[in-house]
Predict the structure of NAD(P)-binding domain-containing protein.
Amino acid sequence: MAYTLFSHTCFIFPSQIPSGKLKSSFVYNVGRRVLTRCSAKKKIGFFDQILDYIEGGPKLRKWYGAPDLVPKDKSIMEEEDEYPDDEVRDAVLVTDGDSDIGQIIILSLIVKRGGRVKALVKDKRTAREAFGTYVESMVGDASNKTFQKKALRGVRAIICPNEGFPSTIGSLKGINHVIYLSQLSVYRSSNGIQALMNSNARKLAEQDEATLTASGVPYTIIRAGALQDTPGGKQGFSFEEGCAVRGTLSKEDAAFICIEALDAIPQKGFTFEVSNGEEKVLDWKACLAGLMEKAGQQLQ
């Protein structure tokens, strides 16, 4: 049997970056830490697509006329404040886009789904250097009503990989789905000094979940086990009651579940627990539909 050899660039996930490095820029710096290996040509998997994007991203930006780096002229960097009143809602907004999970979610949206992606970040220049013009990066106070209105322009769905955003939103009118990655089960199970350290995060998570429950907007709350910097795609899952308290979940797997949940829109909203475990999921749409049915919900 003949094999075709090809060069493959290894993705450096957040878990592989030394703690002293600035994780928010890991996507941009990944090109400086590549390893090359030869292998037999095979079907491209989900994470392999991300690897291919990292390798081909700069070329794609040139092919499609997008700049590799942010222009130094500040006036060019500023985003337009005016939007047409009839703008179509076709974008996915990722909050906390500087975080490990946020960055993996953004890359996954670019590679797997395409379409418009907006992201709330702390450093617009770093984000644009990492993602080019594939992502509309926004910097501002998420609790400011004017900034909220601008951030939610044209947005159909929101993915929140961290606590603190849903409870600051005055209105979610026009949004058809919010996916919230919650650590509330972990916070509630902590005790001693860990409970003190998690007290503020716990309050925010409780407020976020309460806001989504009362919003009237379809929502999916993913109560994950303690998030870990471990490779994704290596383990199965558990959805049993209490698994989030006892178990852990790879950040990469958590990001993947958020992406899979985008199209599984409930009629109202539902919450489920997940951690890494023994169950292999081959069909996420069917899996999420089963979890919704168990929770008394239905897919739209």
Summary: The mean pLDDT is 79. The two ends are 47 Å apart (CA to CA). DSSP finds twelve helices and twelve strands in the chain. The chain has one domain: 87-298.
